Amino acid sequence: MIPRMQTPSFESAPADPPPGDGRPLDRARSARIARAFLPQHPLGNRHDYFYTLFKLRSDPLYPGVLAALRGSRAPLLDLGCGLGLLAHALRSDGQTMAYRGVDIDAAKIARARRCAAATGLADATFETADLADGMPPHRGSVAILDVLQYLSHAAQRELLTTASAMLTADARLVIRTGLGDDSRRGRTTRITDRLANLIGWMQERPKCYPTADGLRETLEAAGLRTTFTPLYGNTPFNNWLIVAARAG
Prior knowledge:
16% strand, seven-stranded mixed beta sheet, 36% helix, alpha/beta, 248 residues, 7 strands, Rossmann fold, disordered N terminus, single chain
């Protein structure tokens, strides 16, 4: 079933850029953020720099997430934060809410900390955590970006229910995920995620891709209102941005 589209109705609805317009961050801002990931030593490994530069210039994820969070001052918990790119993107957008990133990959967390310290990233902390062992305590907004497919169906429901309970009045739950279907985009997403695991970039292999109806049912049962927006951009992936907030 195709997700029904709704017009976002948050009090501070962003206008620049629209979450679903498919554009990545502009080249100048992408370059400024990526420079934080340049190695301190001139002979150091520049993999993270080139990876972040390519991702920021090609992936419409960050404008969508920045727009969804704009106007909220609630502290943000970023689940599966990786290198902490979202923290850098938030600061470049002028968003100064407290940021806490957690990820199962200890090596990425170590590099995220180094980059944050080197660039003076304020109010940003990074911790190693396995969500299968439970959620860290938090009250405020929650970001779950490209994480759900690595959890079982039951674990997805538990994570979403727990994250929903963390939301305060002005907070948002922001999710980016591939949706489970038999489309060409869906097949491409599954193959790419498996390859990312095989080459070692992602420690976990995908387990279950959520459906739009399943996500909506779980979030609405938790008392949240939701919007679904495609985040295809110029990518071949079946990615969607889901933004939820407390009803009323």
